[in-house]
Amino acid sequence: MASKTEKFPIYFKTQAVLLKKRRVRPTQIPIIRATWSIEANGFRGLLNTTVGSNGFVTGTVFWNPIRGWYDVPSGKITFLRFVTGGSIAGINNQLYEGYIQRSTINRGITLTGSFITVGDGTSAQLNKFSWVARAIILI
Questions:
Q1: pTM score, two decimals?
Q2: Is residue 54 part of a domain?
Q3: Does a structural domain hold residue 56?
């Protein structure tokens, strides 16, 4: 029977250290400024983001202004797209929520998530849609 003071063999400690070094948290990717190729509900365009030191996000998506937040530890991005027009001012705005991840296929950076809208042409069944954005330029 092993005593309580018996030490683990050296190779266990080395292996544990190597595992810690190899562990990459893909969500902890800091974004300062980026241009993304976005596809949202079948529509393709550009997403431009600038993230301040406090996590505040500004930019454009489909040429409309956005404002939101990016949390580096969780990799979560949330922003509001301000869409002009509609029967009631502000009703066509869309709320986007997504997570950043590193692709295992091509080592690219992607954002994936969903957005909701309550404007013209939506219903209880058609108000939540998916989106994905791939980094073109990441600074």
A1: 0.75
A2: yes
A3: yes
The tokens describing 6, both together, are 């018996």
Beta strand spans in the chain (E): 33-40, 43-51, 56-61, 64-71, 76-81, 94-102, 109-117, 128-138
Rounded to whole angstroms, the Cα distance separating 2 from 121 reads 71
Total structural domains within the chain: 1
Domain housing 54:
25-138
Angle at 34 between CA 112 and CA 134, to 5 degrees: 35
Whether the CB-CB separation of 37 and 44 falls below 8 Å is answered with yes
Inter-residue contact 99 to 75 (CB < 8 Å): yes
Give residue-wise pLDDT tens across range 29-71.
Answer: 888 899 999 999 999 999 999 999 999 999 999 999 999 999 9
Indicate which CATH number applies to the domain containing 42.
2.40.128.30
Nearest to 56 by CA among 38, 29, 79, 82: 79
